[in-house]
Amino acid sequence: MELARELDRILAPERVRTRWIDRIAYANDASVYRLVPRAVVMPDSVEEIRGLFRLSHRLRIPLTFRAAGTSLSGQAVTDGILVVLSRHWRKVQVEQDGRRVRVQPGVIGGVVNQQLRKYGVKIGPDPASINACMMGGILANNSSGMCCGVAQNAYHTLASISFVLPNGLGFDTEQPEAHARLAREAPSISVGLLELKARVEADSTLRERIREKYRLKNTMGYSLNAFLDYVEPLDILAHLLIGSEGTLGFIAEAVLDTVPDYPLKYTGLLFFPDVPAACSAIAALRDSGARALELMDRASLRSIEDQPGVPPGIRELPANAAAILVEYQCGTAEELEQEESACRELLPSLPLVEPPVFTRDSDEQAALWRVRKGIIPSIGAMRRRGTSCILEDVVFPLERLAPGVAELQELCARHGYHDAAIFGHAKDGNLHFVLTQAFQEPAEIERYDAFMRALADLVAVRNGGALKAEHGTGRNMAPFVATEWGEHAHRIMRDLKRLIDPEGLLNPGVILNDDPRAHVADLKLLPTVAPEVDQCIECGFCERTCPSRDLTLTPRQRIVVRREIARLCEIDSRSPVVAALEADFTYDGIETCAADGLCAMACPVGIDTGRLIKRLRSRSHSAMAARLARLAASRLAWVEAAARLALRTGRLLGRDLPPPSQAGLPATSRRGAAAVYFPSCVSRVLGPDAPRERPLAGLLVEVSRRAGVPLWIPEDVAGRCCGLSFSSKGLDAAYSVAKNATVEALWGWSDAGRLPIVVDSSPCAQLLKQAGAELSPGNRGRMTGLRVLDSIEFAHDEVLPRRPPERVPGRVVLHPVCSVQKMGLAGKFQRLAQACAEAVDVPPSSGCCGFAGDRGFFRPELTASATQAEAGEVAGQDYRGYYSSSRTCEIGLTRATGRPYRHIWSLLEETTRGPGSGAPGQRPGIDAAGPSALRKVAGPPARDPR
After folding, report:
1. Are 207 and 233 in contact (CB under 8 A)?
2. Reported pTM
3. Rounded distance, CA 2 to CA 816, Å?
4. How far is it, in rounded angstroms, from Cα 671 to Cα 942?
5. How far apart are CA 605 and CA 668, in angstroms?
6. Which residues pair with 839 in a beta bridge?
7. What's the CATH fold of domain 92-254?
8. Domain range list for the chain
9. Tens digits of residue pLDDT in 788-832
């Protein structure tokens, strides 16, 4: 391919992707648009960016920059060259004691805030997607959010910016000589910007229109306010790049002023008889100091009223009711008390239909925010298969908000969008609405077109609002820029684009588009492929958690490729493209998927792509392989012995394998035991790395004895397994055999659930806690009566109160494995370590290590890629210990970092050796534990059920 050869001259070949699977994987963003790029490239330097600009101009191929690809408006797709920034460009540097932060475009916004948290500050933009979207998109879309308003968006908090123009010239506004360089090296641009500024200033009507429109949130078109706010051409250009959606240049780096991250919050949910009543309260609530005011109409509330944790009164609200989520945020207790007082004084005057409920409790606040944030995923999950979920954002002047909502509701109903939900940042007059739309039939496309044209008239013409508040103009609103701004402003925007990008090759069709039907062109279809993933809305939120994201595909991309295969198969199943996709998907999609389930935690609709991959793996197994696996599951004691022998033999042959377990399990007594200890098969097969290090089972037994909560290991534990190794490979029948046998054994060992069961490997504990279709009906019932405890929660809740440790000096580092996060034990894991060590770190990049049981032995590149960032963070520090809670993950992390990772119980054993080990009854570094899992243990020792 000629283009590939040209690109190979600019970038390293491994960062040039032209296979069908790569092009299809990046053909979609979070919007309803789809374009297949001719090539996907991943530059890592400004010089490579310049080379791409030169190639684009020479071959006249469009160029589009993509960060996270979470765009809801189609800014991150192209049929030209797609420049992916998410693999590199991830640097964050905190400056001036947190007053400023320097960022590159490929770093996730939430990661930036994580770095800033210890300074008590954050970046100004606070989009709901901040844990998925990247700084390139936040800057290029001038993102805002729930509390950001207008004053704290990217435009107003920009301190300096480094960028490259399509002509290859680069400028850094932080450099004193940059202004003179622009005039000297790009005189036509410098003079042209001043001429555009003069045209804006000469039109008094346009001047006032710009001022009025930017008092509201507004990302429709280019940031024309830059021509009024700044004098120097470079300053004007720098602020035009904010909100330019990648159509004017490449943003290489930006420095932002930070804003306070208020630690104290007072949050409540207010219910009103209807939307006008809710809107009537907004000004008063805002003036009382509320920083967040989130309006939700009845359809929004109805979409989440049956979800767990939602206040039950929502179901009984009147048909036209509305709600406002209110939050006050303060830096000191005195300030919060003042704002609480102002709120209490105001509430009696509001037309509420239910008593207001406010809270300072962080868990209760999180539950209230889940009400607001659950709207989009709820509607996405309920939509009919094959339909798209469309999220739009508009702005009404605050005085027009109530009638604007009513008119918008009527417009949705008139065009058949009866499931539309309207909600948003009421303090700013910014409304989001979600609707579902199918694009398979021409009539459906025409319905959407008619709706969009009517929407433009309703918002921009009749109510003086903005068609885009914070998501960027994109492809869906580009045909309506002139409708909102008028012809004079539209001409200035066109002249600006020609001035900076005269060839029109940089992200064409976005912001400005000559096609009046661009919003209904290049629409993507969502064919059904599998029940596990059909509800995917392709938002990309899952990608940050995926261990293979920098190696092969992400969960979203796996789904996108499967959808493309399904679409092409309907046309011609023997197509060479289908064959190429299927062949490459074996490695990229199946073999390098860790199937860890973390994607489901980040997914708005809870999709676990690993479930699909496991099913695809099961299809690849022959009948003979399935039978052999089932036989192995029924003879696991033999398998364990064979595995230890294989490890011993492999190490003698010089293979890089962990040592086998050398000693048997420690002797324990059933009489007086406080809990059953179920050592995982991994713990029974794999020994510690250091020859003199104590096996894990010995640590748990000894420390529990010291704490007075002795453990009992059943004598017939050999051969019992949670089935994880079978489940991850899609060997469903073998998984069922292993887990059913284990549940039956646990039921007997625990005296029908009287004793809790402690598991030393977090992945095994998490899988055992799941009672799924793999269990027989009888064992499903038994499972509900069993209390399975991960060793972390047993240590935190039962050992520490009885045997407080002596803290060791220095710092330790933790790796919370995937299952710890899924079980919600990351907090207890950290508090457990804090009770044992002077200082505890969790690397910002810690996530799934990609070892995935035994997959790391066969696909070490997956672990190497997944842990690269975390390994860099760990290597740069001096720790006295490295701890996790899964033996295989410890192996992967040790290989990645070159540091010896051990189980957290080894730290607990070390710090509880002394006679006192802390004052009795004190729990250093530990919050009060919840109800003890052992409190049900009372009376004489239980009968041995065997």
Report:
1. no
2. 0.93
3. 46
4. 8
5. 46
6. 811
7. 3.30.465
8. 92-254, 264-438, 627-794, 803-911
9. 999 999 999 999 999 999 999 999 999 999 999 999 999 999 999
